[in-house]
Design goal:
By secondary structure, the chain is α+β, with helices and mostly antiparallel strands. It is 49% helix and 16% strand. β7 and β8 form a beta hairpin. The termini are far apart.
Length: 370
């Protein structure tokens, strides 16, 4: 094409007039991007040289396009890989969710979730299985309680029915037999009432009470021992050594447990026997002078409805010591049975860690009258 003149800006004119200095700048001439160099030549003025930047611009455009395309491909690849990783990471959670929903929809408490690995999901599965174990144990315990209670209730109910059938023809009986029959009915009703009360107490389970009080255990035990002296056989001697002790708990459940221990000791004590009641360090110990526990019975004395061979001819439902164990565990305590040195049975029970007795008021009114 034809020659075109380069535009002169103010700095280029200044260099041409002075003949000194240089300058580099970019400009456009008829749509062509140029790089212009102006250099002074002394008295001869200045020279101006220009070079098109089209090749450079094309190269930069190609580089920019490549960068954009590579960037978009990188973003797409990262999104794809992220989706695959997230899917792989969430797959165990999905399986866990479906498994738990299946167990919830088909409540078979014997089913468990497979524990894979030791990560957080594995720990969650293990915790879920532990919850199912506890729930299954509680349900089985309630089922056994209902089954055992039904079995135990069958005998006194059948006996009552037979006595009532006999009572319908009481006119044919001698007066002394009628009185004996009525006494038997009253006694069986008392046993039935006690059995139902014990079953209701055990049905409360080991769930802690919503409202707890500070209980002066020494005063509570002392009141119950006095009640046992008034109600029980005068031939039984109760001796007490009670240190002040304060626990946090439900007074009625603790009182029921202590009463059951006193009844158990009184039942096994011979006429003129002594029941030793000791409270030390928050642990209540009760010893009788009876025959003690048989070795084969010791592991089972706190089981529901368990009765040793020697106890089958005595009154009772076999729930007294089970209620003691439940009350102790409810309050974070323990219970144990053993044979005392020198003979007799020994039961120790605690109702949680003891507190400072000086911080609590007296519990003289903690027991219901009667």
């Amino acid at each position: 094409g034809g020659q075109r003149s380069l535009p002169l800006d103010a700095p280029a004119r200044s260099i041409a007039r002075s003949g000194r200095g240089s300058d580099v700048y970019e400009t456009d001439v008829d749509g062509t991007h140029l790089l212009v160099l102006v250099r002074g030549l002394g008295r001869r003025g200045a020279v101006q040289v220009a070079r098109p930047l089209t090749e450079v611009d094309d190269s930069l455009s190609r580089v920019l396009l490549a960068v954009v395309v590579i960037g978009l491909l990188g973003v797409a690849l990262a999104a794809l890989l992220g989706a695959l990783v997230a899917r792989a990471a969430l797959a165990p959670i999905g399986r866990f969710t479906r498994r738990t929903e299946a167990i919830a929809g088909r409540p078979d408490l014997s089913e468990r979730i497979e524990v894979e690995g030791r990560d957080e999901l594995g720990r969650l599965a293990a915790s879920f299985n532990a919850t199912l174990d506890a729930l299954e144990g509680a349900v089985d315990s309630q089922r056994r309680l209902v089954a055992d209670a039904s079995h135990e209730l069958r005998t006194p109910i059948a006996s009552l029915r037979a006595n009532f059938e006999t009572l319908r023809e009481s006119e044919r009986l001698p007066p002394d037999e009628r009185e004996a029959l009525r006494a038997d009915i009253v006694e069986e009703l008392d046993e039935l009432t006690a059995l139902v009360a014990d079953v209701v107490e055990l049905a409360r389970g080991s769930r802690p009470e919503e409202s707890l009080d500070d209980v002066r255990l020494d005063e509570l035990v002392d009141q119950l021992v006095e009640r046992a002296r008034r109600r029980g056989d005068r031939r039984i001697v109760y001796t007490t050594r009670l240190q002040p002790a304060l626990v946090r708990g439900a007074p009625d459940r603790i009182a029921r447990a202590v009463s059951n221990l006193l009844d158990n000791a009184r039942k096994w004590s011979p006429p003129g026997g002594e029941v030793e009641v000791e409270l030390q360090g928050g642990t209540l110990s009760m010893r009788d002078q009876g025959p003690g526990f048989a070795e084969q019975d010791l592991p089972r004395v706190f089981e529901r409805f368990y009765r040793s061979d020697e106890a089958r001819g005595m009154q009772g439902s076999g729930l007294g010591l089970a209620i003691v164990k439940q009350a102790a565990e409810t309050h974070g305590g323990v219970v144990e049975a053993a044979n005392a040195p020198g003979g007799g049975g020994l039961v120790r029970v605690s109702f949680g860690p003891p507190l400072d007795p000086a911080e609590a008021p007296s519990t003289e009114d903690s027991l219901a009258p009667g």
